[in-house]
Amino acid sequence: AQKITQTQPGMFVQEKEAVTLDCTYDTSDPSYGLFWYKQPSSGEMIFLIYQGSYDQQNATEGRYSLNFQKARKSANLVISASQLGDSAMYFCAMRGTANFGNEKLTFGTGTRLTIIP
Amino acid sequence: GAVVSQHPSRVICKSGTSVKIECRSLDFQATTMFWYRQFPKQSLMLMATSNEGSKATYEQGVEKDKFLINHASLTLSTLTVTSAHPEDSSFYICSASSDRANQPQHFGDGTRLSIL
């Protein structure tokens, strides 16, 4: 079984500061993929970043980077230079088999990020 | 990027009505689609996995006769909430994926269902 833990139910961050959203996971699968999604108040789920368990380097996508520490089973999302539009719910998720898209995702409980002007 | 279209975005109807929600992948063939339910301030709960041309796989505790899923083509899956009651009111969201390596699931914009 897979489990995702997000221990920060809510965070308040000053605009332009960097923010780290925590995510730890547990799985017995030797190969897996880790994802971060953003959900604004309108409800849509926006894919942000992906990290495969065998990727040697941490994933980066613009202002988003994933701090992947495999031995610690953590996959924290780092947002640099936060903007007001970053205010949203953020979900960490994992999929059991890194190389296929048809495996179901396991989601964490989410972190509500609020950027303060 | 990949686009998934979900309709309708909002439904308000009377108790006892059946409601159909459509999920379409617009620019890729979705071999698998997923249906989730989300209660306010909670995470997404997977309801079922839908594979094109075969029966859906439902998660434990989800009534398959209540939530009918059809995945008739590689671009369309439908969720029908049959004889809906107020407790079925929720946010329903679909996602679609191909079998391409390392590709994320792409989500529709969700359907907010309110049963009076």
Could you explain the architecture of this structure?
The complex is a heterodimer of chains A (117) and B (116). Chain A is globular, with a radius of gyration of 14 Å. In chain A, the strands form 3 sheets. In chain A, strands 2, 5, 6, 10, 11 and 12 form a 6-stranded mixed beta sheet that branches. In chain A, strands 3-9-8-7 form a 4-stranded antiparallel beta sheet, with no helix packed on it. Chain A is built from no helices and 12 strands. Chain A starts with a strand and ends with a strand. Helix content of chain A is 0%, strand content 50%. Chain B has 116 residues and is an all-beta fold. Helices cover 0% and strands 52% of the residues of chain B. Chain B is built from no helices and 11 strands. In chain B, strands 2, 4, 5, 6, 9, 10 and 11 form a 7-stranded mixed beta sheet that branches. Chain B has a 4-stranded antiparallel beta sheet with strand order 1-3-8-7, with no helix packed on it. In chain B, strand 4 and strand 5 form a beta hairpin. The termini of chain B are far apart. Chains A and B meet through strand 5 and strand 6 of A and strand 5, strand 9 and strand 10 of B.
Mean of residue pLDDT of chain B?
A: 91
Strand percentage of chain A = over 45%
Instruction: Return residue spans of chain A where pLDDT drops below 50 for at least 5 consecutive residues.
Output: none
Helical proportion of chain B? Answer: under 10%
Average predicted local confidence, pLDDT of chain A: 93
- Report how far apart the termini of chain A are: 41 Å
Radius of gyration of chain B: 13 Å
Structural class, from helix and strand content of chain B?
mainly beta
SSE succession of chain A:
EEEEEEEEEEEE
Helix and strand sequence of chain B: EEEEEEEEEEE
Determine the structural class of chain A based on helices, strands and strand pairing: mainly beta
Helices of chain A, by number, come to 0
Instruction: Report the count of strand segments of chain B.
Output: 11
